[in-house]
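Hi P.,

Sorry for the delay on this. The queue was packed all week, but I finally got your sequence through. Input first:
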Amino acid sequence: MSKPVRLVLLLIAAAGLGAASWWYMHRPASEDALVLYGNVDLRQASVPFNGAERIAEILVEEGDIVKKGQVLARLDTSRLMPEVERAEAAAAVQRAALQELKNGSRPEEIAQARAGLASADADAANAAAQYRRRKALAGTPAVSRQDLDIAEAAALVADAKGKVAQSALDLVIAGPRAEDIAQAEAQLRGGEAQLALARRKLADAELIAPFDAIVRSRLMEPGEMATPGKPVFSLATRGTKWVRTYVSEAGLGHVRSGMRATVTTDSFPDRPLEGWVGFISPVAEFTPKTVQTEDLRTSLVYEVRVFVEDPTDTLRVGMPATVRLLPDAGPKQAQQDSRAAAAAGERVKARP
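Then the structure:
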């Protein structure tokens, strides 16, 4: 065989090998598997302070892993502490006033009222005697009509003072009215409510992580004025993750809730993650421009969320992912898939 012929054969063989390699690398997925494309998503929360004060401390950085209940930041409390102390003092005054009403009159107060009544009775008896004596001398040069009138008035006044003293004694013995006690109790509840509000404002000076999360963004710094409408951090959950993907109407009939799937990413193509279909949108929409599919971008599609188990925390928000849905194997397999998806969901929820 001549050298040119051998060279041509070698070129043909090399071309065939290259074509075979290209086909292998770019071969279509199995006809039994539905391949979808989307992006990783997870639950996020923007966390603001509940009060309006100046930020004193920021305790975490972007990328930090935080636990539920961990303090993330603190506000300046120089104005909050006096409010708490003032509310505590006001509540103490109202509490003492209520207790005084409930205790009723002291024995000394009752004794004082009795003494006042005795003095008033003595004055009334003396005034009555003076009036009787002057009345007995009425019509004589020793007692004028004016003197008699003065004595009579003095007797009446002394008698009225005796009645007032008797009423005062009765009030002291009876104690405070039930309405006064109820009013004092209401005032105390109002004071305690103000105290609770002041303490709540002081507690809200610490920004607490609402769940186990990763700090995605640190949006404010110490010295800035925090308000309930300005988030300080953006947190991402460390639990449930999913791939937001879209399926055409032609493929919608092959997708069902609980269907098992595998998820791969460009970063780890040889490390597929297990997942399951958790949500299928009942409403069609246009394909978002960020989704890379083989169909036309203007085609109507349905959103599908494929939840993923990610024990090593390798998935990141927005990461492109390829989803391969396992074929539908009938009702029996569907029941098994649903049970497996439910079990996997429980494991994700239980994972810290």
